[in-house]
Structure formats: structure tokens, C-alpha cells
Amino acid sequence: GESVGLHLPTLSVQEGDNSIINCAYSNSASDYFIWYKQESGKGPQFIIDIRSNMDKRQGQRVTVLLNKTVKHLSLQIAATQPGDSAVYFCAEIASGGSYIPTFGRGTSLIVHP
Amino acid sequence: ETGVTQSPTHLIKTRGQQVTLRCSSQSGHNTVSWYQQALGQGPQFIFQYYREEENGRGNFPPRFSGLQFPNYSSELNVNALELDDSALYLCASSIGPLAGGPSETQYFGPGTRLLVL
Fold first, then answer.
1. CA geometry: angle at A108 spanning A94 and B5, to 5°?
2. Contact, B114 vs B17, CB < 8 A?
3. pLDDT per residue over B19-55, tens digit each?
4. What is the per-residue pLDDT for A28?
5. Which residue of A has its CA nearest to B38?
6. For testing the chain A interface, which of B36, B105, B112 should be mutated: the one with the most A CBs within 10 Å?
7. What is the pLDDT of residue A98?
8. Please, what is the Cα angle at B90 between B85 and B93, to 5 degrees?
9. Which residues does chain A have within 8 Å of residue B42's beta carbon, measured at their own beta carbons?
10. Quick one: pLDDT at residue A88?
């Protein structure tokens, strides 16, 4: 069936490096995508979103890239800091209905000082 | 912090019991969604309430039910608890149910950790 998935369950990086977290989606009707960060013991926190009519969107230290041709989404974190250590989820929302995101499994980002 | 609060933070129940979880939405938000997050998994949508009416439901059995009150706070009720119901239950509030952009972004509470023995 339609699903959202992540390529890497765990990503370890050194402090100061750039991190790239990938996500594949399969629902061609999805037109809105969100990245969430979930720290231990907390609920998911909105990081950045992107609509399907965009290829790239930048925030503070984060960039989301969308490749609709191959149904791929990535989150880039510049100058990764220990505070970025968390589980990152991508979520997709299909057009034409309630705002109900479908989440993937998540990628655990570990930042080593 | 998002302004979304949930209670209790932790709960232990036995199989067959019933549980009620509570959520207070962020000020100005009229939509509440509930999710179940099993360990190591992403959140799975249970249902959504918009202005006190159910506005969508995921693939969960009828023993999962909910309410939304006039102040937009919400309850999740689970009857006949099963071991597999052990999970983190997340509540998220938003301005409205329609997909449209950042204003419809869902803001999550810290969750209620339920353990069924």
C-alpha cells in the first residue's frame, strides 16, 4: 500500500558536520510534506514543511529538498549540534481532505561532540 | 513548548480495563488529533475532532473513541485494553482541519505513556 519510509534508521555525525536525512514516499497524491523532530520524552516538534509545487525550502540551519520525480524528500541540517540529536520523522499529507499526516518510521540522529 | 498539555503523563493498566486520556489544545486551536506511537515507530493517526465532531478516523477499532468539548479540549477513551495498546499516545492541536500550509500545522503535546500489563 501507500507508505512513507526512511532509508536509514540511524545516522551518526560529528558536531559541526552537515547531516542529511532521507525519506521516500509512494503516494503520488501527497502534496504537502513536513519534517518533525522528536526528542526523548517529548512529542514531535514541527521543523519545516514544503509543498509539492516547490523543490527546496530553507529555514534556520535546515533545508528540505523535494524530488517529485523519484518521490524523495530530504532534510539537511547544517553545522549539526548535539542539541539536534533526536528522531526525525517525515510526514506526508494528501490533498483534498482532513489534515492527516502519515508518518514514516523515523531516523535517529546521533551527534557526537 | 507548544501549549498543548496532556494528562496523565504515565499510566499503568491491566488487560481488559478502560482508560481515559486527556488533552488541552493550544489557545486558538479548534482541531485536535490523536495518535498512537509504538516504541520505535512513527505516530499512527487514530482520529481527529473539529469543533466537537469527528473529522476523520484511522485504522483503529471502535473500542478507541473520543470526545471534544466546547473549549476544544479532548479525551481519548480506550475500552477492553489489550497488551498491544501499550504505547505513547499523542495529542496534536491545530487551527483547522484543512490542508493548507503552516497555519494548519499540528502542534503536539508531550504524550501519555500507557503500559498495559
1. 65
2. no
3. 999 999 988 889 899 999 998 889 999 999 988 999 8
4. 84
5. A105
6. B105
7. 60
8. 145
9. 4, 89, 91, 103-106
10. 96
Cell 558536520, located at residue:
A17
List, for residues A32-72, the tens digit of each pLDDT value. 899 999 998 899 999 999 999 999 999 999 999 999 999 99
Residues 6+ away with beta carbon under 8 Å from A84: A19, A37, A77, A109, A111
B66 contact A CB<8A: no
What pLDDT does residue A105 have? 82
Q: How many Cβ atoms sit within 10 Å of the Cβ of residue A48?
A: 18
Partner A, chain B 32-51, Cβ-Cβ below 8 Å: 33, 40-45, 48, 50
- For residue B10, give the amino acid letter: H
User: Alpha-carbon distance A68 to A66, whole Å?
Assistant: 6
CB A104 within 8 A of CB A7: no
Q: Is the pLDDT of residue A7 over 50?
A: no
Contact A15, A80 (CB under 8 A): yes
The 3-state DSSP class for residue A84 equals helix
